[in-house]
Amino acid sequence: MVSDVAQNMKFGIIVAREFEEFNLENLAPTVESLQMLGCAPENVVVKYVPTAHDVVIATQFMAEYTDVDGVIILAPRNRIMGTLSAMNGIVQIQIQWNMVVEIGGIETATNIVEMIVLQNEMELEAPENRNPRLNFS
Prior knowledge:
The protein is of the alpha/beta class. The protein has a single domain (11-126), classed as Rossmann fold (3-Layer(aba) Sandwich), CATH 3.40.50.960. 48% of the residues lie in helices and 16% in strands. The protein contains five helices and four strands. The chain has helices at 20-36, 55-65, 77-81, 84-97, 107-125, and strands at residues 11-16, 44-49, 70-74, 100-104. The chain has a four-stranded parallel β-sheet with strand order 2-1-3-4, sandwiched between helices.
């Protein structure tokens, strides 16, 4: 059954070529999962980078130069999350761009859609003056 929860969402998928076997097992199913959640095929942008080291800058490029709602880093979670510099870079991008970034395989499709739905709900529910420390009146 096809859902429509991701109907208007756009996603970037960053694929690190160094994880060839992981990519073969996860890329097509991840894209198919996004489509089953309602995402149109043209709203999924897939970009390849040579190594895990390159996923942070590619995520930054996705945030800055595309209109995606979230980014999936298609890579073994432990290989990215176990690298302090990569995680620091990814967290900084999430904060700077207010963008959801998921790391892993096929499970990331459901996770990223769920997080974007939550983000959108919270934005709609937010009070007009969300941060009183920034009120200069």
